[in-house]
Amino acid sequence: MKNLVVVRGGGDIATGTIYKLVKSGFRVLVLEIDSPSAIRRNVAFSEAVYEGKWRVEDMTCYRAENLKEAYRIMDYGNPALLVDPHGKCIEEIKPMAVIDGILAKRNLGTSREMAPVTIGLGPGFTAGKD
Prior knowledge:
The chain is of the alpha/beta class. It has helices at 12-23, 48-51, 67-75, 89-93, and strands at residues 4-8, 27-32, 53-56, 59-64, 80-83, 97-100, 117-120. The relative contact order is 0.22. The model has no long low-confidence stretch (mean pLDDT 91).
């Protein structure tokens, strides 16, 4: 989908990326696990898994229960969060970019084939390699 970016992980580092992407006009879908943890929870959109929504500065991320609800949230200019630990929805929605912000010290399944642009934040990635 044009102008749609998927960010895998909603921790504090990923939240900074999500914030900038939304402010730059991108629609952002955050994919999270069932029970995420973040070092700086107050500034991590992953808290929306527990709270239903989470505000960082002037932006609120809302948890969606399905893709239809996620699209509705993004239509209002907000990032949407969906619990999808394995990124199964990525193939269906065909985003323009996938950003792995999981920061797990190793790649947990992100590959260059997921989108025309793939970016890995943190350790475990080498440019040009899966």
